[in-house]
Amino acid sequence: MAVTARTDIKPHPSQPTALFTPVFILGWLVNLTQYLSFYFLITVMALYAMESFAVSEAAGGFAASSFVIGATVARVFAGWAADRFGKKQILLIFVGLGTVASLFYIPAASLPALVAVRFVHGFSYSLASTAVMALVQSVIPASRRAEGTGYFALGSTLATAFGPAIALFVIDDFNYNTLFWITTATSVFGLILTVLIRKPEFIKNAEHGRVKPVWSIKTVVHPSVMLIGFFMLAVGLAYAGVITFLNGFAQDTGLTAGAGLFFIAYAVAMLVMRFFLGRIQDKHGDNPVIYFGLISFALALGLMALATEDWHIVLAGALTGLGYGTIMPAAQAIAVDSVPSTQVGSGISTLFLFTDIGIGLGPILLGGLVAATGYNVMYAALAAVIVVAGVLYLVALGRKASH
Questions:
Q1: CB–CB of 256/386 below 8 Å?
Q2: How many degrees, rounded to 5, is the angle at CA 84 between CA 78 and CA 90?
Q3: How far are the Cα atoms of 193, 231, 232, 303, 396 from residue 298, in angstroms, in the given order?
Q4: Chain centroid to CA 291: how far?
Q5: Which CATH number fits domain 216-403: 1.10.3720.10, 1.20.1330.10, 1.20.1250.20, 1.10.3120.10?
Q6: Which of 161, 305, 321, 391 allows an S-S link to 269, with CB 3.0 to 4.6 Å?
Q7: Is the Cβ–Cβ distance between 375 and 40 less than 8 Å?
Q8: Range(s) within the chain of domains with CATH label 1.20.1250.20
Q9: What is the DSSP string of 286-323?
Q10: CB neighbours (10 Å) of residue 111?
């Protein structure tokens, strides 16, 4: 249920009440390196495959999306693995595997080899990102759950804003191999930081003697997280319309300058509000923050449907940061508070799975809508999807709130 700040979750007596502990800071940095490795490559991989192997746009797109396929497959095991074998152990193994995968981009001399590397990289990324989130959540004080989750999410926000820009700069001024070496160096740095993480004693004590979960469908789709998961599936579908079709929309409308600043505005808006919204969620419950995010996201999509000037797109980027950038960490806090402490990995993985499904279905479902009606109608339709998501939240979760 977990639609308000939980008061029934008691921290371990030896757990510190400080938020920015060594585990939190190192985990934040590891998470940043994982997301940077993803965003360095996702925006250029299709074009790289087409140029390097003389393949079609569809084949190039498959090379890019094979990372997501690997990540989605890993979701089936990620949460259970983190809960069963230990968050630090899984994090170390799969940050290491991701680092090895990064090394193989340069020698991958054919499209099948590149697809295989992308799949393994995505698989390891999914397990590592789930494990580091679960590990950090285990050291966030329960009374500061939303605040800590929001600060942690800033790493992925910064990677979203700056990763693609850095990649395009490197491609323009150097070459793809330079970008692959930068990605590898980033992964190596993340691996070193992972080795430095030391689990606090209260976590070791909590893990000692605990019953280790057996894999089942409930470890893939945790029942307690399904409602917020379906909500995030709809939100993820709308977000897919932004990240997938923004460039095409900008070129079609001649608003490329605004599109270039979209994610910068996104990151700045989320960065500013992150100092307030997490604390509000911890103190006053989930509803104020979720509704604020929904209204902001719906306004962003509506503005894109009506955009005629570059500043409209920049403002839509800021509103998307206040919208999706607010909803996602808030939903993560809800998911964590919905499950026992021994099942945090499964709870987080379930939420990510539903969100990934929404983002994955977006290009497929929305591509036909764009072809039939144009970008403006699509963004108006997505604004309506967010309204429907708001109704779903109100009926299924929001009414259960109590203060």
A1: no
A2: 55
A3: 38, 14, 14, 9, 20
A4: 20
A5: 1.20.1250.20
A6: 321
A7: no
A8: 17-211, 216-403
A9: HHHHHHHHHHHHHHHHHHHHH--SHHHHHHHHHHHHHH
A10: 18
Contacts of 370 (CB under 8 A, 6+ apart): 245, 248, 378
Contact 336, 344 (CB under 8 A): yes
Closest CA to 36 of 95, 89, 79: 95
* Range of weakest confidence among 9-23, 216-230, 252-266, 323-337: 9-23
Residue among 28, 6, 128, 19 nearest 71 (CA): 128
What is the per-residue pLDDT across 148-179, written as a single tens digit (0 to 9) for each? Answer: 888 888 888 788 778 877 888 888 888 999 99
What's the CA gap between 131 and 94, in Å, rounded? 9
Q: Are 146 and 284 in contact (CB under 8 A)?
A: no
Contact in structure between 267 and 158 (CB atoms under 8 Å): yes
Q: Which two tokens stand for residue 323?
A: 């919208």
Question: What is the CATH code of the structural domain delimited by 17-211?
Answer: 1.20.1250.20
Would you state the torsion angle of the CA atoms of residues 336, 291, 152, 268, taken in this order, to the nearest 10 degrees?
Answer: 170
Burial 331-345 (b: 16+ CB within 10 A, else e): bbbbbbbbbebebbb
Tokens of 254: 């001649």
In angstroms, the first-to-last Cα distance of the chain is: 14
**Can you give the pTM of this predicted structure?**
0.77
Q: Six-digit token pair at 170? A: 């490197």
User: Measured at the alpha carbon of residue 243, what is the angle toward residues 238 and 244, in degrees to the nearest 5?
Assistant: 90
- The alpha-helical segments, DSSP class H, found in 254-396 are 256-260, 262-284, 286-306, 310-337, 344-373, 375-396
Contact 231, 389 (CB under 8 A): yes
